[in-house]
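Handoff note, outgoing to incoming analyst
You'll be picking up this chain. Sequence as last confirmed:
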Amino acid sequence: MSKLRSPKQLAKFIDYILRRRPDEFGLVTDEEGFVRIKELLKAVNEEEGFRFVRQSHLDEIMLCVPDHSFEVADNKIRSKFRDRLPQHTYAQKPPKVLYTCVRRKAYLHVIEKGIQSAGFSRVVLSSGIDMAERLGRRSDRSAVLLTVQVQVCIDRGVVFFQAGETLFLADFIPAGCFTGPPLPKEKPVAAKPAEHEPGPPQRPAGSYVIDLSEKFATRVPKSKRQLPDADPRKDGNRLKKQKRKREKPPWRR
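Most recent structure output, in case you need it:
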């Protein structure tokens, strides 16, 4: 790393995220204050000047920075000091609308069945569109933005929790409590042509096809060939011609 991107400076930045404002970066901690390292790296890479950060840089901090303030366990990471960490509390006055994103492939299923948690213990919602879209792009670059009607959800028994200034949580968002863009029109499926039984192969005009069955047929000896019936008229004329004798010239008589 360069001086501006030293392990110590990166450690301070990660400590700020995990200890004070995970919600500012779209992160939700679990009951023990852990977040998945994979999600932390996605959030850090979205910040200008920190897009280079990988797992190896976290390992470097653990080895080179003796006074680092976070700990790793089972592909998760948390701050050692969590006194300023936002707690998940019951949202007494949530905004009228909240926003969340779903994968485009799951959009039709979500409209029919409702919004369920994907990768988290609860559905993560945001009071701002930018943060909701930021969270959606982490799982799908073409994620669909949904607008959740909070009061309609509350009337149907949904309980909202607040996880920082901008993030809210819910166990489930029922169908009919949110709106989104219209579904893309399905293209009509073209009818398949009726299948016909295969007929004899068509020969192109002006072509000549050799019948190999005739060419390589077993040849019959001439002695065994059946000659066609002779024409009796021709045979009679032939006999007459054979019987007719040539007369001697007068000088030989």
